[in-house]
Every structure is written in C-alpha cells, then in structure tokens.
Amino acid sequence: MLKIDLHTHTIASGHAHNTILEYINRAKELKMTVLGISDHGPSDDDAIIKESYFKTMTRMPKRINGIRVLKGIEANIINTKGNIDISDKTVGSMDYVLANFHSECPYKNKGEKINTKAMISAIHSGKINIISHPFATEKFPIDIKAVSEAACKNNVLLEIDSAYLSGSKFKPSTIPNLKVMIAIVKKYKMKVIIGSDAHNIWELADDAPLKKIKKEIGLKDNMIINNYPKELFTLLKIKD
C-alpha cells in the first residue's frame, strides 16, 4: 500500500467516481501521508472541467484532515511539438504535472517515430514532472528506451502505473517495456514513481499488482521515490 500516491482521478475527470474530499478521507483511513489529485486535462473528451478548475485548485489548503494534498494534473500531449493542454501560467500554479497521450484527446497515433519525438519534446519543454504509464505502448507506440533516457537526463520521473499491471490493460509488451525502463533508470541512478491511477477511492494507493512482478522487472525498493518523500518534494520543487 502506497503512503504517497500522486495519480488519482476524481469525478472531474468524467469517468471516475469520487470527490476530492472522499479521496482525502480514504487517504486518512489508509494512513497515507501525501495525496495528489491529478484529473485529466481539459482536452480529454470525458473531462467535465475547463482549465479554470486547475487554476482554482490553489485555493485549497495544503493540509486537509492531516493529509498533505498536492495539486496536479494528468495533462495530455496534444501535438507533435509536445505541447500539453494547459497554459504555462497554469503549469506554474500546479504542484506537479503528469503527461502522456490519451486516445480521447486531439492527438492521434502517428507511429512510433513521431510519437517518440512528440513525447521527448514534451520532456524537453520543462513543463512536466512525470510521464504517466510510459510502458503502455499499445495505442501509442514509442521507443521506450529513447523516452526513458530523455526522461532520466531531464529529471522527469517515469511512472509505474498499477492500473496497467493487471486485467485487460496488461499487455504482452508490459513486462519487456518495464525491464527496459528499469534498466535505464538504474543506469542513470534515478528513481521511478508508483501511481495507482485510481478512478475510485477503493483503488487508491493500491500497489498489489506491482508486488507480483517487482523481482521479474528488476525493481528494488530503493528505486521507488514514493519511499523518499523529501527527495520527491525536492525534485518537484515543493516546500512541505
């Protein structure tokens, strides 16, 4: 069970089922220390919010019911230049930004070479902190080695997303891609971040699917930045 989970979706994402307060209360029950709210960016067809939703998140307290609450977004890469679907001003107001491609958004699969170029451009932009589920390459093929190296060189975290490690989202490419990703993270002496990608409070902080494959993919506990809150906050430039 994660004590820090930065990948969660509320009803604002349009296809999730709980409110921010319900997540906070659940986080307290689970004795978590840090909860990140990261609803989908406004270009997602399912999202029921506009960019103003993310701007006004800054009005929430930093601590609610004993939980440190971070304001984030899972933004969408929307073109081959690596642009995302919120403005630079809003990026500056967030605690952190995850980003990737999503099929419900304007960017459509353009093949491995162009997809890779777009993602690396997003990494180089300096606007994102985490690449969400980079190993899930079925809908948007990428060169996982090139993306992983670009992320490590630019202090962008690569996420291991628990939601993609079981059920229909688990694909034949999952384990091979994770092995490549982990090997490169080791090479650059970086860490990965684990996210539940929760779409309801019962999925919050769940890392059970990862535990089943940790040894196979070569992941050790000292490579997981969720276990090092001070290091995570320093990387995200967040003051506790």
Task: Characterise the protein shown here.
By secondary structure, the protein is of the alpha/beta class. The protein has one domain (about 5-235): TIM Barrel (Alpha-Beta Barrel), CATH 3.20.20. Helix content is about 30%, strand content about 15%. The protein has helices at about 20-30, 50-55, 90-95, 110-125, 145-155, 175-185, 210, 215, 230-235; strands at about 5, 35, 65, 65-75, 95-100, 130, 155-160, 190-195. Strands 1, 2, 3, 4, 5, 6, 7 and 8 form an 8-stranded mixed β-sheet that branches. Helix 4 (about 110-125) packs parallel to helix 5. It starts with a strand and ends with a helix.
Structural class: alpha/beta
Radius of gyration: 16 Å
User: Biggest β-sheet, characterized?
Assistant: 8 strands, mixed
Shape: globular
Distance between the termini: 22 Å
Order of helices and strands: EHEHEEHEHEHEHEHHH
CATH class: Alpha Beta
| CATH H level, superfamily name | Metal-dependent hydrolases
Q: Average pLDDT, to the nearest integer?
A: 97
Helicity range: 25-40%
Low-confidence stretches: none
DSSP strand content:
5-15%
Which second-level CATH architecture applies? Alpha-Beta Barrel
CATH fold-level topology: TIM Barrel
Number of helical segments?
9
